[in-house]
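Posted in: Structural Biology > Protein-Ligand Complexes

Title: Requesting predicted complex, calcium ion in pocket

I'd be grateful if someone could produce the 3D structure tokens for the following input. Sequence and ligand are given below.
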Amino acid sequence: MHRARTGLRTSHAILLLTLGVGVAAWIYAARKVDRGSWPEFHGWAAPVGEAVHAETALPIRIRRLVDGASMVLVPGGLFKMGAGPDDTESWADELPPQVLTVSPFYVDVHEVTNGQFRAFVEATGYPTEALLEDSGYGLAPAGAVRMMQSIPGLTWRDYNACRDGPPEDHPVTCVTWRDAVAYCDWVGAALPMEHEYEYLLRLDVGSAKYPWGDGDTPPPKFANLLDADACSAYPAAGIEPAAGNDYRDGFVGTAPVMSFSPNSLGIFDICGNVFEWCAGVSDGTTYSMRDGAMNRDPSLDNCGRARGGSWSSCREWQRCAIRKPANRRIVRAYLGFRCAWRQVKLASKPEVPR
Ligand SMILES: [Ca+2]
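-- Reply #1 --
Done. Output follows.
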């Protein structure tokens, strides 16, 4: 009897052990399948390289299948959005500073280029909204009284209003907010939210005033800003360099994407080159649009926001907290975009804001 019970216990133990091993093997296999099938599951992107995020096993970099654009994983976390107490140039809509949580998302490594946008237009026949607008402002000829001039009919095909074809590797400009959203729809992505964009601007500098730190002058060749050479091309315009009288980046208008050093996540031109459209609309006073929800006041429905400063922006407009208000139908040679994708389920650890 005792021997029989012992045998029964032994067989139960073997059964449980077998079940345990089986469950563990199934979990491991499921994880493996989940990793391996990630790009097929989503159907629009594939991992680039072997690097994966330690906590989630998601690829650090992915490449969209539709347009070939590289995206990088932004693990996210807590950060303080808005102007600091020492920022004397802050606007009401940058205050009060508040701690927000940025959920993990993917973002384009560089701004959408003319070449990518051309492929989009050719593939879809999309008639850009810019074609319907007469609100274009482009780069004026050197020596003009103003740096920017009104150019009716300006579209993305008119590189800085030179009308000699846009360089493929420069960021696309002269696209309206809806043009940018149409491109994002085409590739299965979306525009970045404003708080996501500010998170990227502050990623390496915390609560500093500018994306390069608190000083008024960035390191040499930090980004494509309104530099001394650009200002001297328009002596009658009375404009001052955004980055100090000695700062020269080599570009009066747009620069090829990835011409300057990336941030610590490998993202290029998050500061400078072109202002970038963000998702959502503004209510003009608060961050209530940070979740991308449409504004309740229909009279403000056309007011969008752009972030990151540009080749034509004065220093104030290069600040991390600045939220450039812009009618979503304007066409500007300093205004482009990049894509984001945020359907990412990660359990990220909150970080202590600096
Ligand atoms: Ca410049």
